[in-house]
Amino acid sequence: MKAVIQRVSKASITVDSKIISSIDKGLLVLLGIGNEDDFTDIEWLTKKILNLRIFNDNNNMMNASVMDCNGEIIVVSQFTLMASTKKGNRPSYIKAAKPDVAIPLYERFISHLEKEFDKKISTGIFGADMKVELLNDGPVTIIIDSLKKE
After folding, report:
1. Which of 23, 94, 130, 150 is deepest in the core (most CB within 10 A)?
2. Which residue is catalytic, options 80, 85, 123, 141?
3. Is the whole model's pTM more than 0.85, yes or no?
């Protein structure tokens, strides 16, 4: 799994001109699911996301997690994160899991994140044409790849 994590002051997802999810201070997580991903990736990534110390503490140092600062999380499925641009100029998405594999993993990721976070996770709609609006705070943007454990 690949995740692009952005520290946000606010974020929202719009589908068909209607806002379907929104958060205030917290994390926007763009999630790409690959052919090789499984539940162990979900467990590892969930722990990493919830414990990333990218929020300012009382000393204005990035030393607090989303859990520490009582933030929120919004997750958006994004198969294009699995793009390969090795050959030519047209990205290949061959490494992206097909919906019959990706949807159950995406749903399991959300439920596992909710369980560990003990809060409702806002989401987009898998496969929908979404408009994502955010106010990146910092800006702080982190990329995590569960296969490389980085």
Report:
1. 23
2. 80
3. yes
